[in-house]
Amino acid sequence: MTRKISECPRCGRMIYSHAAVCPYCKKKTGFPPAESVAAQSRATHRPAEEPAVASPAQATTAPAQGAQHRHKIRLPEEVTRKYSKANIAKGLVIAVLALIVLGLFIAVQMQNRQQLRLASMVDHGTKDIIDSMANEVSQTGYVIAKFPERSRHCMYYLQDGHMYEFDALTRDSKEMILTDLNAAAIVDYEGSGILSANISPDESYIMIVASRNTGNTECGLYQLSTANKALAVIDRGKVVFDNGEYTVESGGRMARYNQDGTKLAGLTIEEAEALPKPKQQTEKKKDEEEPVEREEPRVKVTEQIKPKVDVVKQPTVPTEIKIAPQIAPVTTKKDKKDKKD
Questions:
Q1: 151-167 burial by CB neighbour count: b if 16+ within 10 A, else e?
Q2: Which residues lie closer than 8 Å to 222 by C-beta, 6 or more apart?
Q3: Rounded mean pLDDT for each run of 10 residues along the chain, 341 residues in total
């Protein structure tokens, strides 16, 4: 709250209204003290304890007092109640919706401006020539894309497995040979040739599906730039176009591409070839590589066979033979005498 200022009755300078002594002239001012004024204000604003009958004079002064309460100064707490969380959330939601509406409006305006810019670039004479050629081609072929603006002034179409570019200025058709545009491209022109071709949504590329061999068992997916006619090899295998996507299957792998050739999932042929391959078994067993020659037996077969064991028990022969001592014959005296004679 601001302090009330009054003029000093002694020196005339502006001082505090309830100052007892002037700070400048150091003399008494005679101003009433602030405590008495505050007590008097509390007494006037104190509510009555018992209801009393209001007099006509008090009734006339009541609206005036109510009017004074209406202009009461709001405290900061009362002001912040307005900015509650619910009000802040509502404000954020409104702001987000406003930004969304503004973004949609800007997008529509940009699209309309682009259409107007393309319409202004179209050469109506070139457009009539291309439309006339498209009517003739549609009877025996398929129109891929038309560019009636003056910068490109051409049309691409398929006919009998071959792709052609029609120039509206020279009114001449030229075949787009994929093998000449990219040496890595392989097309079986003697068979089915180019099977299909579709323009991307932004008209920057033409996606081409061409056969690589007889029977169309393997096809190539190519990307042709409409700006500089650069041809890129995307993938090869069994190509299927469905729901705005190209699916290529080959050798147990699969890859998916969108309508401008950007890979969505799977492995490309380069990525599949870059994977580490399993090691092949280079070393064979020695028995399979070099047959071992058998050596001739050094001992005859008959010598190697052991004799059969006789089951019958043979009598044992004693190793020591005892010989009885020889007894000398008895000689008589007569015999001895005869030997002497």
A1: ebbbbbbbeebbbbebb
A2: 178, 182, 185, 207, 208, 209, 210, 231, 232, 233, 234
A3: 73 80 82 72 58 52 50 52 72 91 90 65 81 91 89 90 92 92 92 92 93 89 92 92 91 90 88 74 53 56 51 55 56 59 54
Question: How far is 262 from 200, CA to CA, in rounded Å?
Answer: 11
Closest CA relative to residue 187, chosen from 207, 164, 155, 161: 161
Locate 306 and state its tokens. Answer: 């052991």
Residue 192, token pair as written in the block: 């089915």
3-state SS string for 258-274: CCCCCEEEECCHHHHHH
Quick one: pLDDT at residue 232? 93
Give whole-number Cα distances, 70 to 42, 73, 74, 82, in Å: 19, 9, 10, 18
pLDDT at 34: 73
Whether the pTM exceeds 0.90: the reply is no
Nearest alpha-carbon partner for 164 in 136, 183, 190 = 136
Q: Is the dihedral of CA 119, 125, 130, 133 positive or negative?
A: positive
Nearest to 196 by CA among 229, 239, 228, 155: 239
Length of the chain (residues) = 341
CA distance 32 to 42: 16
- Which of 140, 138, 173 shows the shortest CA–CA distance to 155? 173
Strand order in the sheet with 172-175: 142-147, 154-159, 162-167, 172-175
What is the Cα–Cα distance from 207 to 220, expressed in whole angstroms?
10
The pLDDT score that the predictor gives to residue 220 is 93
